[in-house]
Specification:
InterPro entries: FAD-dep_Monooxygenase_BioMet (IPR050493), FAD/NAD-bd_sf (IPR036188). By secondary structure, the chain is an alpha+beta fold. It has helices at residues 2-8, 10-16, 64-68, 91-95, 159-174, 183-212, 218-231, 241-255, 259-285, and strands at residues 30-34, 39-42, 47-49, 79-82, 85-90, 110-114, 117-124, 129-134, 137-141. The strands form 3 sheets. It has a 4-stranded antiparallel β-sheet with strand order 5-8-7-6. The protein binds flavin-adenine dinucleotide.
Length: 297
């Protein structure tokens, strides 16, 4: 995601807010951290101290075990295991091919489903490339957290969205902090707000993946029947309500999520509590000058 953000202008955006931060340490590898002390160790030995450490070091996060207390790698969990292949084809190469030229419609997401695998693709990066993901199921593995906090099934369509929502949630929550003693409560709020959303998305992705890559048999027949019902309509504007809900209901509920709104709702509920506590803290910390006894000499 760092690459995507760089394309979107991460560098200039950081430069713009640099006056609000002590410093940005670019291209520094983190080799360890002490969450109790609030320190991060960089390769080379420097130790950086902070009030909060946000670990966003991706799928192979070295920080995850410090938070979860588990040493296991997300790739070594028992359950289902998938092989996911991702590649990009220059759109021009497709356009030059008579049979493949039809794949260059920017409004279409192409999907091929088979016996235990799914193959899908669409135009990306200003329509210069067509990206494909092929995901045959190879053996059992239980899908669990993805990326640093919540790894998803490879090829999931909501991974990046979840990461951006995480950042938005944290940013908006922290904009309400008035004193650093409130940090633990706001971090708890972050968990409380994000956990249900992340779990629901993980379950949705697992379900979708299971359905689309179903091996030959009853689940595949059921899926094909549903897809045929959906394709019987020219477009979704003419779909009857029941079919629309069956095909797109869950997807729309997932896409309609507004992470900022979730924080606003939470803040509406808790604002007076936090502001009252902060007023009390300020009152208690006011230094009342002690009058010196008058001298009667
Ligand atoms: C081939 C492929 C195709 C994908 N397609 C899609 C898609 O179509 N849609 C979608 O939503 N998602 C897609 N994803 C998933 C998406 O890329 C991730 O969900 C997203 O990048 C996660 O963002 P992140 O910031 O959590 O982690 P990352 O993007 O992995 O960023 C982690 C950053 O931390 C840095 N880092 C790691 N360790 C350390 C360390 N010790 N010290 C310092 N820095 C460190 C890394 O250099 C990196 O810059 C795809 C992923 C892959 C691999």
């Amino acid at each position: 995601m760092t690459k995507i953000l760089s394309q979107w202008g991460l560098g200039p955006a950081l430069a713009k807010i640099s006056h609000k931060c002590t410093s940005f340490k670019m291209r520094n590898e983190v080799t360890g951290a002490d969450p109790i002390e609030g320190t991060v160790t960089l390769r080379g030995g420097d130790v950086v101290k902070a009030d909060v450490i946000v670990a966003a070091d991706g799928h192979d996060s070295i920080m995850r075990p410090l938070v979860t207390g588990e040493e296991e790698s997300v790739d070594e969990l028992p359950g289902q295991r998938y092989l996911s292949l991702a590649f990009q084809v220059p759109t021009d190469a497709l356009r030059e091919d008579e049979e493949l030229a039809s794949l260059t419609d920017p409004l279409v997401w192409y999907l091929w489903v088979g016996d235990g695998y799914i193959f899908h693709g669409n135009l990306v990066v200003g329509e210069q490339d067509f990206t494909d993901i092929e995901t045959p199921k190879t053996r059992k593995k239980r899908g669990r957290k993805g990326e640093a906090g919540h790894p998803l099934v490879p090829g999931s369509r909501h991974s990046t969205a979840l990461s951006i929502e995480d950042a938005q949630t944290l940013g908006r929550l922290f904009s309400h902090i008035q004193h650093k003693s409130q940090l633990p409560q706001f971090l708890n709020a972050y968990e409380e707000i994000r956990q249900p959303r992340v779990s629901a998305t993980q379950e949705y992705e697992q379900r979708q993946f299971g359905m689309f890559s179903a091996p030959a048999g009853p689940p595949m027949i059921q899926r094909d029947a549903m897809m045929r019902a959906a394709l019987a309509y020219e477009d979704w504007e003419h779909m009857d309500e029941d079919t629309f809900k069956m095909v797109w209901g869950n997807e729309l509920a997932l896409m309609g999520h507004d992470a900022g709104e979730q924080v606003d709702d939470w803040w509406t509920q808790w604002r007076s509590f936090f502001e009252g506590k902060e007023r009390a803290r300020q009152r208690d910390s006011i230094q009342i000058p002690v009058l010196q006894p008058a001298s009667y000499d």
